[in-house]
Amino acid sequence: MSSPSSSTPSPSNTTARKSALLASYGYPSQPGMARAVAAAAASSDSTGPNSPSGLSGRKGSISTTRSSHRYSQLYSMAAEQDVEVEDDLARAQKRLRELKTKISSQSKKNFVLERDVRYLDSRIALLIQNRMAIAEAKVAEHLEEADASDGLFPDDRKLQSYGNLFFLLQTEPRHIATLCRLVSLTEIDTLLQTVMFTLYGNQYESREEHLLLTMFQSVLSAQFETATEFGSLLRANTPVSRMMTTYTRRGPGQSYLKTVLSERINNLIEHKELNLEVDPLKVYGQMINQIEENTGSLPPHLPRGVPPEVAAANADVQAIIAPRLSMVMEIANSFLDTILESLDQVPYGIRWICKQIRSLTKRKYPDATDFSICSLIGGFFFLRFINPAIVTPQAYMLVDGLPSKHPRRTLTLIAKLLQNLANKPSYAKEAYMMTLNPFVENNKARINKFLNDLCEVGDFYESLEMDQYMALSKKEINLHITLNELFNTHQLLAQHRDVLAPQEKHHLRICLNELGPAPVQVPRKENKTIILPLFSRWETPIQDLHSTFLQETNITQADIMYMETKSILVQLIRSIPGVADKRPLGLMKIAETAATTKDAILVRKGIKVKEMLIELETLNVVDDHFTFMTEEVTEELRHLGNLREKVNEEAASLESVYKTIGDHNNYLRSQLDSYKAYLQNVRMQTGGANPGQGPGVGVVTVGGKEAKKGKQQVLGPFKFTHHQLEKDGVIAESNVPENRRSNIFFNITSPIPGTFIIALHYKGRDKAILEMDLKLDDLLEKQQDQVQLLDLEYVHFNVNKVLALLTKTFIKR
């Protein structure tokens, strides 16, 4: 049996490796390193009587002195990668894994669909503002579904380089953390899609979740470092706040909201006619409208358009509001009770972010009161997580359809109350909320305790190190990613290369230099999903966990054998029906039973574990009756039994979440279909068709209204001289020589509504010198973004003027 010293690296090498490993997670190895991380590293390097090496040769006291439990757990995790046990637990775990994968995938699809709905919504708003038609083809091109089948990236060398780059991004979260702070608000959604749903897309896989959380810690640390005012922290609409909101929309957050809030909200919205408005001005307006409806006129003492203070002083308004105040506070209390009772159900990641907010606040503002700190925690938990779901439950899949007017207003009031409770109440804009102040005063201590309790969760640095061991021991780590996600991330990294990786020898800079310029985005129809194998050229994969343990820990060969024996015995007991029910467990008998079955795999394992038990006994690692190993195997089986129940409960809960996310996906698709139908209607109406026009005439129905449609009509060409357009300000700049401008003219045609072809001609030539295809929604977007000039190579058009020209020329034709 080898001694501990024969297989243990020197302390300096071990410490160096720890520092490198911790640094890869985004933590500095300098004295400023987080205490929890330092403690985790220190505990891993411990030696002495309670260290893993103290296990060997201590017959009769193994169970009580072993501190190698985490290595035993790691060994078991590794062993399970190569074994297929078919018992109830294994089947339940497989079902749970499949569910989690489906939820992660569906969450990403919904995120993309929500973004598409916002895109179309903004386009329709622009078109309504300009009273012009749109080319449906452009919208369809933007929204067309990509082929879901997996493709292969065409260039193997580039594929490998991307695999290296994205392994680096995933395992060293500080790069993404910095990038998220550098990008603009217009870029953040696309980046968040890649980060939240692709790079760390396995939402229930601990390694990816923990790496994502380390990224959040880095982002929050920088946010606190650069903050100038306490009150503005985490409240402004920034890329960081958008990150935090998007994180809460992942599977675990959605599951929590549905479990905790769905029943309360659905009970409330059943009472469609229950009016609990407490704003005196609104109550006064509703009151006089009702009087006018009943009597046909208004008495002189009840004029319209009174100021808030007059409405609040009206005795009838006060009488209406008084019972409503009590009811609103009662309903708000029921919501609050439900939330406070759900502490143990809050997803770990959300609680961990709350913990970081508290820790960073105490460091940045050592004199901050507990009340102030809780207001920041509440700013995340309520403002970014709970309240949006209460105000818009349909968007969070908590209700079917849109709540009616009165319940919707009540939900808004409840969210305001909870926010006032979590933050310092502000009544500057809504003085009427002061009447609900008793709710805030009565519950302030309760909410502060809850927000502090949210922060009481353990850290994960030690388990993350184990997860990284596991990742390095896997033969394949793959990322399912679309080409445009790949190219967009590449482009953003290259754009901010000098900030992210200022030194030439920086690994990230080396990867980016090898890849060269980022490819342009591909059309949506060509945006295939590829399987990207991840690897690191700077970190050697773990080929053999046995030798890794011996080289990188204080564990001996005998310890390895002990853990392997225990692991195989647990597998055998789970694989042989009825064995687990017999007490006490006879480990040698179990080995013999397996060795005499008709299953070749069980026979081999039974013979192997029998020989290992004998060898362990010879080495004095176990006693004659295997007492302590029997205790540990029994305890492991008890844990697995409890685990099966938890797995089944979690699977039942996630089945509901998956169905809800699927329903929301259908809802989003129906929204897109409605928008497309609306745009098609606009296109047909502005196409100049008349009823009875002949072939092609038909009817489009949108929202219950019929719109006539007819043959598509080409409008134009309409001729404009260079001089005319220059005089009208349409041409802002011209590169055409002065002496030739009189021979230049432009023909503008609209082949389909919303699409325009501008052709530049020279007198005496049949063919156009230049043709440009313009889409109306692109022009409108440029106008909204305050882009002044449109480059047509020989001339620059003024965007506003060209829009006015197109409106005047085509809108009534």
Automatic annotation (TrEMBL):
Compositionally skewed regions (Polar residues) per UniProt: 43-54
InterPro entries: RasGAP_C (IPR000593), RasGAP_CS (IPR023152), RasGAP_dom (IPR001936), Rho_GTPase_activation_prot (IPR008936)
Alphabetized GO MF terms: GTPase activator activity
Keyword set includes Coiled coil: yes
Pfam families referenced in this protein's UniProt entry, alphabetically: RasGAP (PF00616), RasGAP_C (PF03836)
Cell cycle as UniProt keyword: no
Protein name (record): Glyceraldehyde-3-phosphate dehydrogenase 1
Source species of the chain: Mortierella polycephala
Gene name per UniProt: GAP1
